[in-house]
Amino acid sequence: MTRILGVSGLVLLLAGLSRAANDAVPIRVDVDRQIGRCYDFWSTGNATSQHQYADPTYGPKARRRRPFVRYVNCVRLLGGRSDKRNAYFKGVGADGKVQADFTGLIRNLRGIVKAGLTPRLVLDNVPTGMSDVKQMHKYGNTLPPRDFKVWREFIRQAVEALGKEFGRDTVSKWRFRAGTEPDLYPGHWAGTKAQYLKHYDYTVDAVTAVIPEADIGPGNILNPARQIIRRKTGRTQWGLDIIDHAAKGTNHVTGKRGTRMRHFSISYYGRVGQAVTSFDVAIRKTRERLDRYPQFRSIPVEVAEFAVLQDEKGRRLFGGDITEWAASWYAAIADRVYALNVARVHEWAQTTWGVWHPRTQVIGMLDMMRDGKRLAVAAPRVPRARCGAIACRKDDGVYVLVYHHYPAREPQIERPVKLTVADARMKAGAKWTRSGWTVDRDHGVWAYRFYADCAAAGLKPLPKAPLFGGNVRLRFGEKVSDVLTANIKAYRKLAQLHQDTNNQSVVVGAGSVTLELTLRGHAVKLIRLAPPK
Length: 533
What we know:
The chain is of the alpha/beta class. It contains 13 helices and 21 strands. Helix 11 packs antiparallel against helix 13. The longest helix is centred in the first third of the chain and has 19 residues, at about 150-165. It is globular and about 85 Å long.
């Protein structure tokens, strides 16, 4: 039964939250307990329009729009598109041979490489001429091929062409993925589960015929924490069953047991108002299925689609959320990424018109910690909130990223934090230095000034427009470009990462130091402590 609070009940609830927030959260970092590495999990970005990279001016723009992306995950790479691009399949000749022209594919990938980026190849969609297409679905042709042998030869020729152009050794280091969300019917796969498993076997066989050691895996599956029956189709999610097939199923090509699978990925999208605990559920369900089979226990698990997808009213966000809420949400997710050993989390948008989102500033904080030795952190559970830290030792310094995240956007309640850093190098009375950076409502956020400027310019929100989405035209329409153009310098300045302390002297105790912090709602702070030189 859903309980509806009256006004008095709501007042009592908020009062309770305020009392709880007055209690300092103790967080302890043990510098002498190293538990891993602060690896880079954020440098892969999805791209559905690779043809843009054929324009030599686009690569630098792409780097500015997504400053932390170094790998381009090329989705819908092989045709079957509603825009009719990437039409490399030319049919089957009278002699029964598959005909294809990969000139455009090579041109697009060459542009990615020239931009200083590394392609990752998503082998979809099936070309329209290869399927019995009566209608295109949301993401193009999602039907299986009518002849899987034709598909296999088409893929083999594509990989062979890439090897000749870029060098086999280079292409062998690229990652291959067989499709996208095969359990999303009919958006990404309009065939059956059995047809996808067959499709996967034939795709793997085609790639490994050219590159036997290929790093290949299935399409990213729908979030396994949300096992639901689709109302329109009556179908359930079956993505995790791919693991069982790859481990012990009969291979449709070889007739033998199992299929190569070097990585496995899922989709995970957040929503304002939704707790991040479902992330743990999704990864653990995936690991549990993989762990049933010894050969899959150590393969990388990735999140291949990821963003804040909906605002608090369930309206679709394009370009993610551009407030501090997404910053603390991302910090909380990053904490779980390291705890659960998730290899990569793919990126969509990081900026609007090149202006950094607050979430992107948190990626910048993590990038400052990159390759540091990750440290043990002890933090208690906080009611109705998530308050924690990620810490590392890098060179001589100790970095601690502290975050305070609520599922709801409002109310924003301050919370005191008592951060203790234990380090055997600390001697009583010694002077260390402290530097710090902050993202919160008043630091690193430009959305509120931008919304005020739109109101001053007479722009009203469009009907059912999402709140604080990165694609601002969906909120205010085409005339929003005038506001952005007039105020872009101010927004860039507001979006800069705020440094609140710089080499400030801190007197430490014998073996530890305790810092008293106050974190606003949805705040993220990065603190660097350094010993005397």
